[in-house]
Model the fold of this input.
Amino acid sequence: MRSIYCVLLLIMLAGCNNNEVGDVSLGVFTTKDIKLDAFNDPVVTGITCHVSSIEANLNFSDPSDSSIACRQTGLITADMIAKIDKSKNGEVLFTKSKSIFFKTMKIRRILDVEHQTLMYVSYSTKETSGSFKHSLSTVPLWGTEAFNAAKVQN
Done:
């Protein structure tokens, strides 16, 4: 009996998240909720992203669907752009476990140098129903100190 309590406690603790800014219940007769997380880009600190995803409490795996919206919430400088990964793959900024079976949701930042835009992609690392679930948000550098900085550095 004690091991059952330990397992339930671990499942509940796995759902704890200090980035969570909202929680929407999907109804009385379901254990699924929409969780809303916020995070600041660790390098381009003037950008905040909000991500929504479904958590299915007491299930071994959460649905793969997610949505992301990123906005400029502070300064974006040329120094910040100089520090980011400018490869076509970009870099992973945020990871959240969605299953005890190695499924994760990741957020990756990619710089579109030609259009002077930062792209943030939220995606699941496990195929679901024949496709990988993903969502995209973009933040243009237009009007910031960083505008054209990426073109000069390339």
Remarks:
- Helices lie at 2-14, 78-83, 149-153.
